[in-house]
Amino acid sequence: MGSIIITMRKPENAHKISGALKKRGFRPDLICPTAADALSECCRRDEGVVICGSRLPDMSFLEFRDCLPGTFRIIILTGNVMSDEYPADAVKLSLPLKLTELVSVLEKEVPVERHQESNSEIKPVRNAEDRKYIDKAKAVLMEKRGMSEPEAYRYIQKSSMDNSNSMVETAQMILLLNA
Predict the structure, then answer these.
(1) Model-level pTM?
(2) Which end of the chain is more exposed for a tag (fewer CB within 10 A), N or C?
């Protein structure tokens, strides 16, 4: 299993990428504020990937690439993917970043293992009473609006997101409005 190290000029961008990857089952090992820190960590690990911006805070990208151990792949997030300044073996992703592209690269080209248990941490655990509210609201939508069960569930889900409510609160509102 490989390591995922993120180094960006702006720490808030590194934290956003790390958080998004965690939600998709990846476990970034650490965020390094400088390229030197990232290189130091790479030397302590066997293999992995470094996700970095095209501009690093303490050295040029080419210096960073030349010092990077051969067992590490590099993913560059850049506004100019056609630039000749990046090595041919580096994966270049254009900005603004599409997370699906980054996930695809990590799945295909990097020796990292996804942790499926992280998805279970994100999903809320509902008790029986909460599930009853949602099931009753689905039944109302199916009866009064002719929706299928998946359509009714998706309606509740989308309405809760649109109104910044939980699904249970949205289900309760549907039941109150149709009582």
Answers:
(1) 0.59
(2) C
